[in-house]
């Protein structure tokens, strides 16, 4: 049995076969529009191609929203009510995947479309937060766990608590729109001069350089009702739940001062507002987790939802709440709901036992050396074939070169985990500024992550719990901070990725070769893309981005491309 999962807010598709994931990808990687929210046409084609089936061979198609909730005529739902997920949206686009004269017939009435599709496809609409919860729990290594989802909204809901056990998820609490942490996060992002629904993580990075001067003000605005288990906000400070060009109100400006416009200078006030808000988000999340632990009597937690991408928050949850094991979906944002909808239908609706654990995030396209060589030849670049690319790459990194590393299947999530990565030496204190300015072309304060061999995690970090998906921030051991300054945040922490020898042997071997040269079992890792570009997908994407940035060398499959060796044109 094949189940195809779709999501089009952060557009993505995933496919499972007999309860096991075989492919998942974001539409942005194919159409090259970052955070694309179009129907995932190319991602669906990719998933079908990996499975070797057509759309008509799919037993169940699941969409990670319930469109009925999107058309409820409630005054407080004004901003949600006109969302595009109406009943016709998915059927209309699925028609484009079905070939033959019958599908090309012009069918204008919605009831005619649905009747036509009933004979062709089996479509199901899955509650959004159940899709998030399934993406976290049903693919986790835990048989029983508390589950916490939190985002902007989905089907009227902005956060939900569950107990997951076996092949079942039971809701034990939720918050209804418009009391939304994700929407408030977007409002603060806009207030500070950034784009909503794409730049929220900039606030987390900026916060490390400020002081929580405005914490008390945010504490009056953002709260968690510990008796009811619900988020509560002072809505007088926001406008996101009505149609407005901005998401914050005049009252917000009266309290915090005038908003920052894009490209305006960042002041200490802006930075302190980011720091204050970030700390309040973390503290609220801790309160919610303590409440959930007490309610469920469990010490294992699964997390998903856009707000769960806040790795600083996740690290504090592990260290400061009763939960001693925390598993965060690597695609915790809405893209992961395509995967979650599949497993929700397979496990909870069809009542199949769980048989899959998501040990890695490499579910996108991969390319053979033959395909890579063809792309290199077509690009008319000089390249060389290497017997040991891991050793050569490690040597280049140790010589303070910044390299691109393109190997295996592409990551599904937003974090590059060693298959579509830019790599560098974390020992160089100027490396962060160099990559931000010359390669990624982004803000000075944006941090970079360390990839550390799993065996050496305890040598560099105070927390031994693994972080294989780069979704947790841990304190760096004090004696190591001066050794790896390029990946250490201002507060002495880092957002690490632990690399397992068996899960990604080639990447593990590269770091091991670097360790043999330098004695340091850790390198700087960031996503292989330029600013405002999605992570590279194909060899052609890799070649184009390599030559458009300040990266010194490209290691692509078993080939190396060096800019200094290119022939004169």
Q: Any overview of this molecule?
A:
This protein is an alpha/beta fold and 569 residues long. The chain has three domains: 2-64 and 67-125, ATPase, nucleotide binding domain (Nucleotidyltransferase, domain 5, 2-Layer Sandwich); 139-330, 2-Layer Sandwich (Nucleotidyltransferase, domain 5), CATH 3.30.420; 369-565, DHBP synthase. Helix content is 34%, strand content 20%. It has 20 helices and 21 strands. Strands 13-21-20-14-15-19-16-18-17 form a nine-stranded mixed sheet, sandwiched between helices. It has a five-stranded mixed sheet with strand order 3-2-1-4-5. Strands 8-7-6-11-12 form a five-stranded mixed sheet, with helices on both faces. Strand 20 and strand 21 form a beta hairpin. The longest helix has 29 residues, at 268-296. The protein is globular and about 65 Å long.
